[in-house]
Amino acid sequence: MTSSHAHVSLLELQNASLTLGEGVARVDALIDVNLTVTSGELVAVTGRSGSGKSSLLNVAGGLTPLSSGTATVEGEPLAGLKARDLAARRRRSIGYVFQDLNLLPTLTAAENVAFPLELDGVKVAEARAAADVALTRLEIGDLAGRFPDEMSGGQRQRVAIARGVVGERRLLLADEPTGALDEVTAENVMKLIRSLCDDGAAALVVTHDPSLAAWADRVVRLRDGRIDSITEAST
Amino acid sequence: MSVRDALLALLDRRPAYGYELKADFEAATGDGWPLNIGQVYSTLQRCERDDLATAQDEADDQGRRLWTISAEGREAVAEWLETPAAPVEATRDPFSLKVLMAIETSPDRVDDLIRDQRNATMSELQALTREKASVADGDLARQLHLDRSVLLVEAQVRWLDMVEARIDAHGKATS
Ligand SMILES: Nc1ncnc2c1ncn2[C@@H]1O[C@H](COP(=O)(O)OP(=O)(O)OP(=O)(O)O)[C@@H](O)[C@H]1O
Ligand SMILES: [Mg+2]
After folding, report:
1. Distance B80 CA to ligand 1 centre (A)
2. CA separation for the pair B149, B144 (Å, rounded)
3. Chain A / chain B CB contacts < 8 angstroms
């Protein structure tokens, strides 16, 4: 899509392949994957363990360079970027939610969320304001001053997602973001991601749970590194 | 039997007309279990025959008769609510029959069949989820009905995933 106001392509993978390991341990983690994610879209990634889901998020976020093919974020090919520019691009555009969340234990919720902006040179007060906005969107504005170990698992999960979408970041990459949550809490997290996408962000969310994947506009299923099927929600 | 007991449970709250029971039943089940009015009246008539409920002798000016539960009816409701229901019968359904027969008779097509079936089932799940997203906050019955539908469909997707994984493991073990 080329329209400047409506849906813009935030992520494009073209013939993306990734080979990991050496010798007998060589694995084709991704084979010829083609995927475009536009703003407003929530895409779920499913597939068996080892099918390449985390690999897909890693190449989409520029954490792992492709063996062949191209990865483009907000129109910019990641392969062309110098390491420093790539890191900056990642911090600016892409939010990651890892399964283990990676919250810094010595920082409060708000400081955790503001952290990537501060790394980017945003002034502390400005970063904190953006963090407050993100936390409020995730309905945990009142927990801004809490440390990770003073929150429940579901609350920490929301802090991690808030960090994933803080500031201008519009592409959220989340690896099992609902990990060990109960059904209703997990669904609420998915609903929040859904509403962030409805507001113009885009997300690529790995989940094993079919009923959570069903919140997506498209469900991409990987099998042995290839896209096995894509189920589009009928509109 | 369950519909009878459910109608009695509603009557246990207060006497009601048949059409009210139909509406109350459908609201309580989140519109996930439509009843036709004929079924309501035939069920009530059976209740009357079995002394579980009685209808007013005189119909009102609109031809409606008010139904009241009897002491036996109350007992039947209490017993019904207190007895655990049998789990969903999962032994036979067209969905699994097709998959199992394909494995038996056309193993080379199973992969495609599972993929198509999963796609269709996932689509259904997406449609249910959209519906869920649009349920008004206060509509608990509808929410619960859709939750249940989602879980039943989800079980099919999960089963297909297991079928695929088992077949792969089986193929590796025997090749
Ligand atoms: N650093 C690595 N070196 C070699 N092989 C790797 C490496 N990381 C992952 N792999 C392999 O790549 C394949 C895809 O792994 P990936 O982590 O993407 O799977 P996944 O779908 O995320 O699985 P899970 O559901 O278990 O998280 C697997 O076969 C895995 O063993
Ligand atoms: Mg993984």
Report:
1. 52
2. 9
3. 47
Class level of CATH domain A25-108+170-232: alpha beta
Q: Which CATH class for the B3-82 domain?
A: mainly alpha
| Residue B109: both structure tokens together | 């097509």
**Cα–Cα distance between B87 and A137 in angstroms, integer?**
40
* Domain layout of chain B by residue ranges: 3-82, 94-174
Contacts of A209 in chain B (CB under 8 A): 154
**pTM to 2 decimal places:** 0.87
Which residues from chain B sit within 8 angstroms of residue A221, using beta carbons?
118
How far apart CA A206 and CA A185 sit, in angstroms, is 17
Long-range pairs, B166-175, Cβ under 8 A, ≥24: B167/B103, B167/B110
Tokens in use for A10? Answer: 């935030």
Which residues have a Cβ under 8 Å from the Cβ of B107 and sit 6 or more positions away? none
Cα-to-centroid distance, B127 and ligand 2 (Å): 27
Residue list, ligand 1 pocket, CB within 6 Å: A 20-21, 25, 27, 29, 47, 49-55
Cα B93 to chain centroid distance, Å, stands at 15
- Per the CB < 8 A criterion, the answer to whether A157 and A181 are in contact is yes
Contact B29, B7 (CB under 8 A): no
pLDDT in tens, B80-131: 999 988 877 767 788 888 899 999 998 899 999 999 999 999 999 999 999 9
pLDDT digits (tens, 9 = 90+) for B5-62: 999 999 999 999 999 999 999 999 998 899 999 999 999 999 999 999 999 988 888 8
- Residues of chain A with Cβ-Cβ distance to B135 below 8 Å are none
The domain limits of chain A are 25-108+170-232
Contacts of B20 (CB under 8 A, 6+ apart): none
Nearest neighbour of A214 by CB, restricted to B115, B119, B122: B122
Q: Is the ipTM of this complex over 0.95?
A: no
Q: Which atom of ligand 1 is nearest to the CA of A51?
A: 21
* Cβ-nearest to A210 among B115, B122, B165: B122
CB contact under 8 A, B126 and A211: no
Residue with tokens 């996932």: B122
- What is the nearest CA distance from A120 to chain B, expressed in angstroms? 36
